[in-house]
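Data deposition worksheet. Section B asks for the primary sequence of the deposited chain exactly as it was used as input, without tags or linkers unless they were present during the calculation. Section C holds the resulting structure in token form. Section D is free text for depositor observations; keep each observation to a single sentence. Incomplete worksheets are returned to the depositor.
Section A, Depositor: J.P.
Section B:
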Amino acid sequence: MPHYYFDLKNGARLMDLAGLNCSDDADALAKGTVFAERISLDTSPRASTRYVAILNEQGDEIFKVPVRRRPAA
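Section C:
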């Protein structure tokens, strides 16, 4: 099963050192989307510049999932 890493980028990179096994690229993208949605709970004004970078086993960035601010309730 391929291994993927999910780094958070916001100017600097917060590296995921453990990563996760995913069945394929689509599964990795689905998991990255869930991570980005969870991070969106952050109401920081800089949140709109954040994204989850999904890297494959070779360290190549294969997807970017933007972290969007959730509207105020």
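Section D:
The radius of gyration is 12 Å.
Residues 1-42 form one domain.
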